[in-house]
Specification:
The structure holds two protein chains of two kinds. Chain A has no helices and eleven strands. By secondary structure, chain A is an all-beta fold. By secondary structure, chain B is mostly beta strands. Classes of the chains: A mainly beta, B mainly beta.
């Protein structure tokens, strides 16, 4: 089945630094990928839709200058958290739509970001 | 009122029990309904998806959709400790396929 690889799985960084998270579709092409944020015991909150070859579409309230998204190829999207602060600590998950699953979204394994 | 409501639990059951997980929703435009399982510190994995109303069965899992009541359910038969996870419902409209998620129900199956 469709596989989405996400790394790193865990990262700890200092306040003010930037962190890049990668999301790759391994056996299918994904023109669209999605980035979510999840707080403990909370639902997945869509942050942005990443479109190959064009600008990402951000959800209301998500700072596009803070969460930089690049989708340079059909199999890779990256999320860069710039000038990270402790309140950015969260679980970030990417997903891609596998048309073969018909409305099934395959998720990456997530990245636990801790900003100290 | 949130678009999708789901009791976070935790729901604790003995091994072998039948588990019932539920979600309610308010948007009558939802047509696609999904259930995801998420283990701790992992990404969600798709368990079941259904279109419109009705039942769908896959092994020990049965998904039910009642659009008239805006209520969906996931039943797990003969539950196992390995079923212990958070189960998220998700749904989407025909126009936009980006799903809206419930907050998830934590299930604990104890031996």
């Amino acid at each position: 089945g469709a596989v989405v690889s996400q790394h790193p799985s865990r990262v700890i960084c200092k306040s003010g630094t930037s962190v890049k998270i990668e999301c790759r579709s391994l056996d299918f092409q994904a023109t669209t990928m999605f980035w979510y944020r999840q707080f403990p015991k909370q639902s997945l909150m869509l942050m942005a839709t990443s479109n190959e070859g064009s600008k990402a579409t951000y959800e209301q309230g998500v700072e596009k200058d803070k969460f930089l998204i690049n989708h340079a190829s059909l199999t890779l999207s990256t999320l860069t958290v710039t000038s990270a602060h402790p309140e950015d600590s969260s679980f970030y998950i990417c997903s891609a739509e596998d048309r073969g699953l018909r409305n099934g979204y395959t998720f990456g394994s997530g990245t636990r970001l801790t900003v100290v | 009122q949130k678009e999708v409501e789901q009791d976070p639990g935790p729901l604790s059951v003995p091994e072998g029990a039948i588990v019932s997980l539920n979600c309610t929703y308010s948007n009558s435009a939802f047509q696609y309904f999904m259930w995801y399982r998420q283990y701790s510190r992992k990404g969600p994995e798709l368990l079941m998806y259904t279109y419109s109303s009705g039942n769908k069965e896959d092994g020990r899992f049965t998904a039910q959709v009642d659009k008239s009541s805006k209520y969906i359910s996931l039943f797990i038969r003969d539950s196992q400790p390995s079923d212990s996870a958070t189960y998220l419902c998700a749904m989407s409209t025909g126009g936009s396929y980006i799903p809206t998620f419930g907050r998830g129900t934590s299930l604990i199956v104890h031996p």
